[in-house]
Amino acid sequence: MAADDNGTVGPLGVYFPHISASQALALPGGEGTLTANVWRSSYVSQTGNALTWDWQVSAVYAGPRSVEWIRTQWYSQADLRNGASISMGLSGDSASASYSSSWQAVRTAPKYWTNNNGAKESDYRGNLVIGPAVDYRQGSIVTVNTASVKLAGDPKIYTISAGV
Amino acid sequence: MFVSLGVLTTVFAMTACGSQHAFQNAVVIPRPLNDHEYVIEDPVNQRFVLYDMNRKVAVSWTNVPNEFVYNFATPSDVYTIGNSLTNHFSIVRLVDGKVETLYSLPDQAHDAVFPLATNGRMMFFLLVHYRDDGTEVWRHVVQWDLGSKALLPFQHVDGAIEQGALVGTDLYYTVIRPDQSRWLYRVDGTRLNARPTLVSTRWGEGPVLSCKGELLAVRGHRLMFGGHTWPVSAVNWITENGVLIQFDEDENTLTTRADVYNVADGRRLGGAVNVEGFRWVENGIQLDCSGHVETVVWGASATGGAMRE
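Predict the joint structure of the above. Result:
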């Protein structure tokens, strides 16, 4: 496992601080390695009442076998209250807290993206939005990515998760 | 300053990593807690799901890493379940929303079993044996004898067997060759000592499905039958009377979608998105979705329609 709090340089030369994690699974029989990667910006931007993070997930297979399909599946969770909502920016993934002043762990609906064209990687990215900001417990955001792969000729499928 | 933060985070993460196998609230097969909850199967994520019929939501599911459910490509309430790293495979049956174990493999550490083909009366599995390090030693096609609860191997069937389908009592199966081509064989499913016949050395990539006494052809990642074609999906099932059921990712909602077709005329009988899992009903399939339930029914001639609640 590796986790780091570092940065990357965007296309316009802008520096993006982020936190990321990777978990690798060595597949039985020396068939290769499956890695789950997850990335979220360290700094949250606030516009009005909305908090926004950038996020990115990927599943990567490294090994000699052909890939039948490879999938990345993700969700985020945060402590919210008073009807506040969380979304990773995708249709139907929004979730809300109930109208109570106590903190509740609220999780977005899981989504997935599969490559079945022989590629050895599957990735997705987007923006995570929480609002209103006052009903988000600072530091409680968690993003989890689960990588899965089916190799040609192997009846089993394999999975590994990483979170930040 | 930036490097120091990175090192600190890495140290913290590696410390936490030591407990990754202590899975909290680990569930292999969820159990219903009341009469409006029942277990269904999610065929894309290959897991059992506990579904709440009143709230129309999935409430829990198989959450042990690398524990997966495997199914036949024809309607059946029999599945296999096991762990891709540790094996521990069993044959199970999903009855009235509950899972019961029919048979656990005697060699839990080295054997794995996967559904191959069934017509409801005859049932064949793929039995795979592994060394301690996970490398594969052999594969056999085995017949499941429910009475004696025994897996009986075909004596002359071997190789890297992948998929299978029944046409009458003939078992068709594919074998992956060292050059990655697929060869199609046929063997008499009623005789364990039968010798297989090579049918094709150019079988395409894709599922092996049979309908109305013949195999569906696969060309360029499309299924073909009677002048109609369908793209190969992540999951492809077919009934004896010619109903094709497909599950795949819906690119608009990034959830699971299901589509049901009559292969004889190519007509779409129904389907849904946001599918959490399914269960077989008489002459139909119930698609349990996030927020609603869709039931697609068909008659003996595979005519039919959909009903939403």
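DSSP finds no helices and 13 strands in chain A.
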